[in-house]
Amino acid sequence: MDITAYLNAFTGFFVIVDPIGTALIFNALMPDADNRSRAITAIKATLISIALILLFGNYGEAFINMLGININALRISGGLLLFFTAFNLVTREVSMPSSSKEKSDVSVFPLSIPLLAGPGALTLSILVFSGSSDQKASISIFLAVISIYLLTLVMMLLSKYVKKVIGKTGDEILRRFLGVILAALAIQFIYDGITNISSAV
């Protein structure tokens, strides 16, 4: 197992997916649902998100190559997208989706897309998988993805308790701290893309 690849992927996905923040939003989406409905929705959203992330991670690079897009261009554009996400995390208020008493399936939207497997996570999946040097690194990234989404699943299942423990102030502090980390990760992607393009010229 490649510990460095695992930790890099784990950190990146942890910042973007934000298991704690997702748990708080999940609780807001299903405030009056029974435990069984909450569990089914959380598991369904997690499985859909894992499938999307792994699909984009393994085949996204081939797809963009078919479109004539260089992977380094994706690194730069993806880094800019991640930086914009980080900027929003640090400077803007997060709007909680309005809860509805009507029973609706929120596992696909907004839980899976865009919360768990949004543009930032999909872009990151392509970047980390395309950047893996060998099979050991790819397996480590795969394990990091599974770890993050299992952690997020657990947090969603325990969302009622998470809300009581962390509260709104704690979530604000955590969100802004993670935003700074994500900004640094985004700049690193941009730097790597520019460096690779410059060396190829």
TrEMBL record:
Transmembrane segments: 6-29, 41-59, 71-90, 111-131, 137-161, 173-191
Annotated GO CC locations: plasma membrane
Membrane topology of this protein: Multi-pass membrane protein
Xref: InterPro entries: Multi_antbiot-R_MarC
Protein's cellular compartments: Cell membrane
Keyword Cell cycle: no
A Pfam family that the UniProt record links to this protein: MarC
Alphabetic keyword roster: Cell membrane, Membrane, Transmembrane, Transmembrane helix
Principal subcellular localization: membrane
NCBIfam families linked to this entry: NAAT family transporter
Family from the record: Belongs to the UPF0056 (MarC) family.
Protein name, UniProt field: UPF0056 membrane protein
Taxonomic source organism: Nitrincola tibetensis
